[in-house]
Amino acid sequence: MRPSLRTIYFLLLLLPHVVFSRPLFPLPSKSNGIEKRPLQTFRPYNIAHRGSNGEIPEETAAAYLRAIEEGADFIETDILASKDGALICFHDVTLDATTDVASRKEFSNRRRTYEVEWFNVTGWFVVDFTLEELKTLKVNQRYPFRDQQYNGKFSIITFEEFISIALDASRTVGIYPEMKDPVFINKHVKWDGGKKFEDKFVDTLLKYGYKGQYMSENWLKQPLFIQSFAPTSLVHASKLTDSPKIFLIDDFTVRTQDTNQSYWDITSDEYLAYISNYVVGLGPWKDTVVPAAKNYMMAPTDLVARAHAHNLQVHPYTYRNENQFLHLNFHQDPYAEYDFWINSMGVDGLFTDFTGSLHRYQELVAPHAKDETANSLLVKIAQMISQYEGF
């Protein structure tokens, strides 16, 4: 009998200093053909942004296990590539902010300066480390005001390990991977046969059975959204798979990494009409949808309405419970923020660092249908029979 996800989660906490030479999760996943509870599709999606990273360091196995335990519909990750071409789950192209690399003397000579998204960046870059080297690093919490007790306990995981976590869940859990900084990755990492980062990314998804258009039978069994800030990568991926894709939107003043257009330019109606041929939705930074000034929200833009007019979903990012991130309009109440975005703005999904709080909010206002108990079914049968007594 293989261990449950809950068992593995606690083993991760108890074994902070173990370096696993093999994947923690057997690949491919062994589901034993068990029928799982399906993905809920009747309310906006709860997207666990980098796992439950409000509690546990981001993009680690423990963060994803916790998010699933807390009710995530999708677990979200960023995919980068190592020096030797392995696909890993990690957000930044540099290792500085969330690992112990700076304290590792054997890597002191690896510090470099590269151009990333139009700017020179200095640090320890993922693309200068092999997968074996990356696996020796320990991951830390990004924000100092969050719980630090799990620092140094978990390692970087691969894309395949991430997939296995979702496939091994006791219910249907979707995955939401991002092709992260594809222009940078394709410049610094080369694969045999002239393959690109996007090709390796899609190959991995197809290897584990992820395919099919949005809401198709196969998609409902293995739900997936592919996301990227780079529109050319989404167009390229569309030639390789029919799985649904999400075009991420940054601050309107920022230039895309691949087209040298601002996000203001590519949220025009003309551009939305074009990109809707390749994607099923947008993933905008929430402050591009509703601008803020002095931490107060201003009048909403019409981006959600225009996206919906083009039959595009809207999944904004990122919802966080801390006062540093909550606009003052919500009076330090994350439930008030969820209520505004779901009921007033009409979004179709939310990226959150606190999966549990979004799940609790949605269970309060739009609860998942509960399974009927045997007793309640017997009562219904008795009531039906009583209607015919005396005939």
From TrEMBL:
PROSITE patterns hit by this protein: GP_PDE
EC nos: 3.1.4.46
Any GO BP: glycerol metabolic process
InterPro entries assigned: GP_PDE_dom, PLC-like_Pdiesterase_TIM-brl
A GO MF label: glycerophosphodiester phosphodiesterase activity
Residues making up the signal peptide according to the UniProt record: 1-21
Ranges of residues in domain GP-PDE: 44-362
Catalytic activity: a sn-glycero-3-phosphodiester + H2O = an alcohol + sn-glycerol 3-phosphate + H(+)
One Pfam family named in its UniProt record: GDPD
Keyword terms of this UniProt record: Glycerol metabolism, Glycoprotein, Hydrolase, Signal
Superkingdom of this protein's organism: Eukaryota
Family label: Belongs to the glycerophosphoryl diester phosphodiesterase family.
Protein's UniProt name: glycerophosphodiester phosphodiesterase
